[in-house]
Amino acid sequence: MSLTTCTIHATQRQERAIYVSGELARTLRLNGVRNVKLQLGSKSVTAPLKLVKKAGQHLYLPLILVNAVKLPRTGVCSVSSPEKSEIRVGPLVGIMTSVFGSGTRPFGTLTSFMRQIVQTGSETTIPFVFSPRDVNWQQGTVFGYFLQPTGTWVRKTVPLPDVIYNRMPSRQAEKGISLSAIKERFVKRGIPLFNWSFFDKWDVYDLLRDDEAYDFVPESHINPSSEQIKSMLEKHRFIYLKPTGGSLGIGIYRLTYTPKRGYFARYRKNGKNVLIRFDKFDGLMNMLGTGRGGLQNYVAQQGIRLIEIDNCPIDFRFHMTKNGNNRWVVAAIGAKKAGRGSVTTHIRSGGQLMTPEQVLRQVYGPRGDQILEKAKETAIKLAEAIERHHHHRLGELGFDIGIDQSEQVWMFEANAKPGRSIFKHPALKLADRESLQNIFDYCLYASRFRARREA
Fold first, then answer.
1. Which domain of life is it from (predicted)?
2. Which of 6, 296, 408, 425 is spaced 20 to 30 Å from 123 by Cα?
């Protein structure tokens, strides 16, 4: 085996050499090697290899070598030997986000989440947080934020990382021209960056259009005309209008057509659920402001008769992650029961968070587990399909999935930067941590921290 974890120590020894315990040398297959290249991120240094008598797996570095590779901390991390005379420590994982706070809250409201990410990754990697403006391309370094054992943040200069987890917090931040150029620059340097940007709703539907996974997507139309909306209402009886770049259920309309009763529009305004009836279709269109030809930057989507509890529709948030084997897994599932009169199942709109087991056993009885497995299989097929057609690396996805009253599974939305509100449920506390651990296992894979293959 040439991939393991070890404890790194800084030593006061004056000799410019790399010291390893005998057990670590055997694990990394370094026996007989005289000189070794030590690498952290984009920095490396070559020095003589020395064995020390010490039980366990340990790596000792004189301060001159610590400074040469800009090692930000000692302690436990992963270590590999991809080539016979090479030691890679790390991986150095950069979590890219916006820095807009100061002191103990450098990432504003995201600070506690960044702390959770870094704490999870510190067991096997060297994680840090940075903003795009913290990169020094000339020197090949990043001035990043590291979490201290005391819980405080300290800034240190480190090499360009082995892999980047993109957690930019908003669409506005993502759409800056300079940010796109920065991301491209990382990739050109061979640094994998995953979760490239937020999805627009239509982008996802378009990606899947020629894939068999499109069977799981309800009928959808971008920038629908009045004629398309009327046709869909007559065909499906109810549809949803969703802003292409929206989130949290903001700006969504639920339109319903009932013969002899007219047209209904349900939406949320000023924190309240609103329902308006129109005798004629033209009145509905006037309210929506479609007089100039269509609903720009909106998607019209077929309504689905979802399973219900207490006459309230239920849908599911599937949190998907890649794992250390580069495979998609269902990291967590939250069931969301719509609030009375709400357009969506979002918690902020009166929705209730439940576990999928609670819901499906109540709806299907003993068959609930079977239905859940079918939904999981569908979610994995959808993740694989999106990845096949997407131009950039993905490591995490969120799906809004529904099950209709005929047991058909549907995907309504896919999110490249999924929120984590489902993890507030007490039953998903362990899944919360495991989902982040999957991310760092995937970082090991993406950064090529793997066992060396012998010829």
1. Bacteria
2. 425
Indicate the pairing of strand 272-278 with strand 262-269: antiparallel
Strands (E), 234-327: 238-243, 253-258, 262-269, 272-278, 298-302, 308-309, 312-322
Main-chain phi, psi angles of 242, to 5 degrees: -125, 135
Residue 347: its H or E element: none
Residue 311 CB contacts under 8 Å (≥ 6 apart), including other chains: none
Report which of residues 245 and 274 the model is more confident about: 274
CA distance 63 to 75: 15
**Distant-in-sequence contacts of 112-118, Cβ < 8 A, 24+ apart:** 113/420, 114/145, 114/167, 115/147, 115/151, 116/436, 117/165, 117/167, 117/436, 117/439, 118/146, 118/147
- Partners of 313 in the beta sheet? 308
**What pTM was computed for the model?**
0.89
**Which of 69, 99, 74 shows the shortest CA–CA distance to 162?**
69
pLDDT score of 439 more than 90: yes
Across the range 61-90, mean pLDDT stands at: 94
Q: Is 210 helix (H, G, I), strand (E, B) or coil?
A: coil
Q: Give Cβ neighbours of residue 150 (< 8 Å, ≥ 6 apart).
A: none
pLDDT in tens, 126-150: 999 999 999 999 999 999 999 999 8
